[in-house]
Design brief:
The chain is mainly β. It is built from 3 helices and 43 strands. The strands form 10 sheets. Strands 1-3-6-9-12-15-18 form a 7-stranded parallel β-sheet, with no helix packed on it. A hairpin with a 5-residue loop joins β29 and β30 (310-311). It is globular, with a radius of gyration of 27 Å.
Length: 459
């Protein structure tokens, strides 16, 4: 069972194959696994030949991404509620049979791009046309599109069961040699149930057992401690990007009772006691920022906290929900760098935001594409008196000033290996109540770029 993953299973042929067109990560078997609820791909297998048999892949962006796969068998799998169940670009000699598709937006999508990079070794040494598919004896149920094909040659499609599907076959003039006639030899070849001859496992685990209570991507909850494991109670804001006054909270965890001990930052709350699971609402206090602190008590089953501590059944346990947001009226300017990494002239781009959170792949776009640039962000915020933690994340260099004083100085990219991680620095400052001026400077010398500033209030 590898559910609720970013990718459930990821396989890549390796850089030598990308450069030479030879080799691959071949002859692997994925058999009888559950790869459901991945926000990206349930299974990704690329530039190789493999077998994907009898797996369950529900509610992913792509159930199976098989770019440049060849001589790959995809059979007896169950796909459900994926955006695309099977997506293969530039594939060749692939057999897709006896799969069950249910409520996927597109069940099977096959295609080739018009052009590929001329300097890429793989396409210089390999035939990468999309061609030679057998699609047969599959079951399509309530799919918007069953089969979508572009720029592909020599496809065999027959023997399918179709129920409640909007469009069975979507093709255009770029598709050639489509054959929908019955082929009894292929029926005989693929009608033998997929079986694996391999090592015998004593008492193997069942990847599909006991997963129903955590089914769905809705149960991917990432807290400050990492992915939530449902072994202790949590109060979760279910509408975090809603700009209205009402906040929606889910209270999740092991079976038990909860009650609210105290709360601040809300002028009302819909319930103060109940059993898990529960959903309640609260109305935010009017104001520029958000400073919410809710403390709850749980009594119920044995739990394991995020620290690994065991709390016995029936023993009270205190947990909380906190959210703080300090808006800053930022004016952000970007300047192009010259060959000496010095910024000159007017900004190439300007915008106004209330928080700094940027990540750039390939630079900034401001008419032209700038891969080397300097960012200068200046803003004023109205703070309550207290101790605040300022955290800055950057790539390649950054500085933070508060009221004209240099607080964080990380202007030397040579101090860090940016291939390994994006650095982050934190510092605590005691601020008097009132308005304070902030200035952030950032420099990017090429490649991936990042700049983010977090502001937290110490409790």
């Amino acid at each position: 069972s590898a559910t609720h993953s970013g990718d459930g299973f990821f396989l890549w042929a390796g850089q030598s194959t990308m450069d030479s067109g030879r080799g691959g990560c071949n002859d692997n078997i994925l058999f009888g696994n559950d790869f459901s609820y991945a926000p990206a791909n349930g299974v990704e297998v690329t530039f190789s030949t493999n077998k994907i048999l009898k797996n369950r892949i529900f509610e992913c962006d792509n159930g199976l991404w098989g770019g440049y796969s060849y001589h790959t068998e995809i059979a007896n799998n169950q796909f459900r509620n994926n955006k695309t169940a099977i997506a293969i670009e530039h594939g060749q000699y692939n057999d897709i049979h006896h799969n069950l598709f249910f409520r996927d937006q597109t069940a099977i999508k096959l295609w080739a791009a018009k052009d590929q990079p001329a300097d890429w070794g793989y396409v210089r040494f390999r035939d990468t046309r999309s061609r030679n598919y057998n699609l047969l004896l599959n079951s399509y149920n309530e799919n918007k599109i069953a089969i979508d094909i572009i720029r592909t040659d020599s496809i065999k499609i027959f023997g399918d069961r179709v129920s409640g599907t909007g469009e069975f076959l979507k093709i255009d003039s770029t598709v050639s040699h489509l054959d929908t006639s019955q082929d009894d030899e292929l029926v005989d070849k693929f009608s033998v149930d997929s079986a694996i001859m391999g090592p015998i496992m004593d008492n193997p685990s069942d990847p599909f057992k006991g997963m129903s209570k955590l089914a769905g991507r809705k149960n991917i909850l990432v807290t400050e401690w990492g992915p939530y494991d449902f072994r202790s109670p949590v109060m979760w804001n279910a509408n975090p990007i809603d700009t209205g006054d009402i906040m929606l909270f889910d209270i999740k965890g092991p079976s038990g009772k909860w009650k609210i001990l105290s709360y601040k930052g809300l002028d009302s709350i819909s319930a103060e006691t109940g059993t898990i699971p529960a959903t309640i609402t609260g109305r935010k206090l009017k104001g520029e920022g958000i400073d919410i602190d809710i403390r709850l008590e749980y009594i119920g089953d044995e739990i394991t906290t995020q620290y690994g501590e065991t709390i016995s059944k029936g023993k009270p346990y205190i947990f909380s929900f906190q959210r703080f947001f300090q808006p800053i009226d930022w004016v952000v300017n970007w300047f192009a760098l010259d060959s000496s990494n010095v910024a000159h002239g007017d900004p190439v781009k300007t915008e106004k935001v209330n928080q700094l959170s940027y990540a750039w792949w390939g630079g900034i776009k401001a008419g032209a594409q700038y891969t080397r640039f300097e960012t200068v962000a200046e803003g004023i915020g109205n703070f309550q008196q207290g101790i605040y933690e300022f955290g800055i994340t950057w790539d390649d260099g950054a500085r933070l000033y508060v009221d004209g004083k240099l607080i964080i100085d990380e202007w030397d990219p040579a101090k860090y290996n940016f291939d390994e991680s994006t650095p982050h620095r934190r510092v605590k400052i005691n601020l008097a109540g009132g308005k304070h001026q902030l200035r952030v400077e950032h420099i990017e010398l090429g490649g991936f770029a990042a700049l983010a500033l977090s502001i937290k209030k110490s409790r």
